[in-house]
Amino acid sequence: MTLTSFGPANRIKRSAETHPLTWRLRDDGEAVWLDEYQAKNGYAAARKAFADMAQDDIVQTVKDAGLKGRGGAGFPTGVKWGLMPKDESINIRYLLCNADEMEPNTWKDRMLMEQLPHLLIEGMLISARALKTYRGYIFLRGEYTTAAKHLNRAVEEAKAAGLLGKNILGSGFDFELFVHTGAGRYICGEETALINSLEGRRANPRSKPPFPAAVGVWGKPTCVNNVETLCNVPAIIADGVDWYKSLARAGSEDMGTKLMGFSGKVKNPGLWELPFGVTGRELFEDYAGGMRDGFKLKAWQPGGAGTGFLLPEHLDAQMYAGGIAKVGTRMGTGLAMAVDDSVNMVSLLRNMEEFFSRESCGFCTPCRDGLPWSVKLLRAIENGEGQAGDIETLLGLVGFLGPGKTFCAHAPGAVEPLGSAIKYFRHEFEAGIAPVSAVVPPLARPIVIGA
């Protein structure tokens, strides 16, 4: 998998003015270490934030810029920061970076951590200053061993340069940063499950309220932000609100740029930093190069396995939260997947639901029992052994496991692709329903004594 900021039909040179996240990347794909990062204006934003900006001004700047979470939920970052308590007597606060990137078909945070580890550290340093947090943790997916190695080296470099630790930049502000590798559970991407895991507990989501801003890690105020979200902070502080807003395309309600990608049987699978508001068609044709020879686009997901399927005619939708919502699903992580015409949707959904079922924490009944039920039905349909009513049962599960019906957002994300697949490709599910004459009623099946 490659990362570029231009496609074969649209070559655009990366620059600080247009690509705040990726302009520092090396052409050879190697990591940018401290000396090179500082030579490319690294930590200039942090120095500005510490020397020239009050802590509340940093929060307001991020809020005014319209930065939203890049992990999939899209909650306004400045608003989230504003939920942290104002009481100065609360001197123990935490900043957590959610780097547990386990959404299938998503790898954007991995690139940032492996190739630009100091960008994340600078973003966390500025954020810690704004939130008055004295300690931070990068909760990293355990399989990201290269990212862990690079982040730990970058943390040591920053400490040696006086950019982490005690009295940072002579300001009197202290901030320690640690890299914590997880044990490999998808549910840790949910911020309160992440907090439980960090504390050494079972990774179950917590009930809210109280929210982490009030009661988080070890009962203290905590802010949790995604990797890509935090990596946007330095550019906003360095270059200002108006510039950041100007990066997005006309019509987009989301500001700035976004790491977007396309995988599947496309000619040029990859990852690109693009302005919010580009269309799915631009991403698919100009950057990913369209389908490989001999394959036809059947469907696509706009942002990871937990988003609904769309059809080729939906490619003209703009890639931002509201634009994708208009065609019936969510922007998610912004990394799209192409489904080609050789793929059976029932088999694809069975594979997806097996993953989501396995990764359920098991805390609430709809998710714990409903997802395995969907797998059982899909497996029967896949084998041509489905029974009349199975499709309706699956659609019932989509409703029972939808938003607001479960303890966290795991199950709603799991069933969204299932509901959309049945909506657009119901005939493929119907093909797996056995004729009535072939179905043996339960009471008519032979009973084997001792079986």
From TrEMBL:
Keywords: 4Fe-4S, Flavoprotein, FMN, Iron, Iron-sulfur, Metal-binding, NAD, Oxidoreductase, Quinone, Translocase
GO MF term set: oxidoreductase activity
Gene3D superfamilies: 3.10.20.600, 6.10.250.1450, NADH-ubiquinone oxidoreductase 51kDa subunit, NADH-ubiquinone oxidoreductase 51kDa subunit, iron-sulphur binding domain
NCBIfam families cross-referenced by the UniProt entry: nuoF_fam (TIGR01959), PRK11278.1 (NF008436), PRK13596.1 (NF010120)
Function: NDH-1 shuttles electrons from NADH, via FMN and iron-sulfur (Fe-S) centers, to quinones in the respiratory chain.
Catalytic reactions on record: a quinone + NADH + 5 H(+)(in) = a quinol + NAD(+) + 4 H(+)(out)
Cofactor: FMN; [4Fe-4S] cluster
Family assignment from sequence similarity: Belongs to the complex I 51 kDa subunit family.
E.C. numbers: 7.1.1.-
Start and end residues of each NADH-ubiquinone oxidoreductase 51kDa subunit iron-sulphur binding domain: 346-391
PANTHER family named among the record's database cross-references: NADH-QUINONE OXIDOREDUCTASE SUBUNIT F (PTHR43578)
Protein name: NADH-quinone oxidoreductase subunit F
